[in-house]
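Key result, reporting period 2: structure in, sequence out.
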């Protein structure tokens, strides 16, 4: 509130931590907004500038969230990607800004809940539909270590989302789902040793 009273900018993500836990297939959906940002705007008479951020779901294509493992690490969850490690990919990202708006008062629970629900629906429809349709296409994913427990979990999540999956592993996967091709990984053979020259002495 101090920043707003000083006419400074304040960025708020109304989805909170729940917004970061969305899976790849949910990347264009929005969870329920909190109402704290609206109460701040009403109390300080500050206009709200809505914006949409596109590309985060492609940068970190999450197929599952491991909550128990995340709690052990002190986080709400541990995201699992098709390449297993939660490392962002270099993808194109876009930011879309909307018109500034002022929420109606007073800041009652009914008013704030109704207004935030309307804004959420509006922001959900705001991104360019052609761009959304383009990015929503199914992927062809190669999963390394597919025969392990985590690899099988990732594979099933991707299949449920309609993606094509292939895998690579040193171990065979007995009972692999139909349509999943598992390539056998073999360690590269060691290069032949060069015979050493005979040890001769010259007197």
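The corresponding designed sequence is given below.
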């Amino acid at each position: 509130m101090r920043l707003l009273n000083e006419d400074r900018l304040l960025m708020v993500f109304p989805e909170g931590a729940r917004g970061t836990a969305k899976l790849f297939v949910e990347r264009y959906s929005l969870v329920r907004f909190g109402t704290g940002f609206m109460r701040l705007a009403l109390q300080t008479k500050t206009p709200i500038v809505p914006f949409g951020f596109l590309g985060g779901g492609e940068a970190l294509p999450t197929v599952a969230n491991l909550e128990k493992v995340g709690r052990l690490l002190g986080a709400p969850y541990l995201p699992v990607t098709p390449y297993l490690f939660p490392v962002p990919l270099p993808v194109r990202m876009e930011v879309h800004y909307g018109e500034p708006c002022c929420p109606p008062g007073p800041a009652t629970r009914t008013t704030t809940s109704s207004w935030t629900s309307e804004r959420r629906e509006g922001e959900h429809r705001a991104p360019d539909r052609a761009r959304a349709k383009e990015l929503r296409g199914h992927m062809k994913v190669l999963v390394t270590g597919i025969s392990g427990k985590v690899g099988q979990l990732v594979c099933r999540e991707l299949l449920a989302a309609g993606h094509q999956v292939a895998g690579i592993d040193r171990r065979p996967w007995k009972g692999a789902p139909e349509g999943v091709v598992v390539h056998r990984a073999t360690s590269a053979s060691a290069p032949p040793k060069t015979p050493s020259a005979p040890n001769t002495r010259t007197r």
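Helices lie at 2-5, 17-20, 36-44, 56-59, 67-72, 109-125, 129-135, 149-160. Residues 126-137 have pLDDT under 50 and may be disordered. This case is discussed further under Risks and Mitigation.
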